[in-house]
Amino acid sequence: xxxxxxxxxxxxxxxxxxxxxYASGTDPGDLEQAVxxxxxxxxxxxxxxxxxxxxxxxxxxxxxxxxxxxxRLERPYETEPTDHGAPGPEQLALAAARRRTLRDAVRxxxxxxxRLMEALLSPKDLTYREIAGELGMSQGSxxxxxxxxxxxxxxxxxxxxxxxxxxx
Length: 168
Fold this sequence. Notes:
This protein has seven helices and no strands. It is an all-alpha fold and 168 residues long. The radius of gyration is 32 Å and the shape is rod-shaped.
């Protein structure tokens, strides 16, 4: 019975929602879905309508009026309600993954580079004098050593970055 009702009403519902949706600014698919929902609720409580086509036309118009009222009352937010400038869970996870990748690459660097990069990336924000003292190097050699280490780091990270960028 329900299957026959749906099969019978489907073409009429498609035509009615297409005609009414444009004038109300509603998506025809959304309108059609709302009417199917009303039919299911009706079947559950009162059984099938006596005049299915008449019921369908009245319900489409009722849903269009409801949609217009809702649209009239809704106001867009000035900004996103959850956007407080703080990164969300996805951004935090991606940032953590980038830090892990960087730290792993730094550990694979040759010679004194891992210690130098760790000192440069330290949250203590060490000066060149402090880094040179910690590593037992002259302050003047830190710049050239840093350049060599960054070049190695760039070569290590390039294949990983290129591989990630190629997806999707």
